[in-house]
Amino acid sequence: xxxxxxxxxPLPQPTREAVVFRDHADDILSNEMSVxxxxxxxxxxxxxxxxxxxxxxxxxxxxPVIAQRIILYRKxxxxxxxxxxxxxxxxxxxxxxxxxxxxxxxx
Length: 107
Known about the structure:
The protein has 107 residues and is mainly alpha-helical.
């Protein structure tokens, strides 16, 4: 089925402001991409034995609740001896540990 416009007048052309806005939107998106890349670089240096709650929340898949649980576990049982010790934290499973491995260290 084909749709036809009732009014055969030409479609409006984008204004200069619309073009500038579109270009500006592209710049914003590229800046957001670079911020995400910088954040990923920050993730690589996160120590699960020393990181604050805010630093832990930057990790993929770690929100405020899990970050608090990691810190609570550290306080109760001492430092993590291996990354797999994260499995002892409620709410962290095998998939989360595998996802976090590239971004955390024990030191």
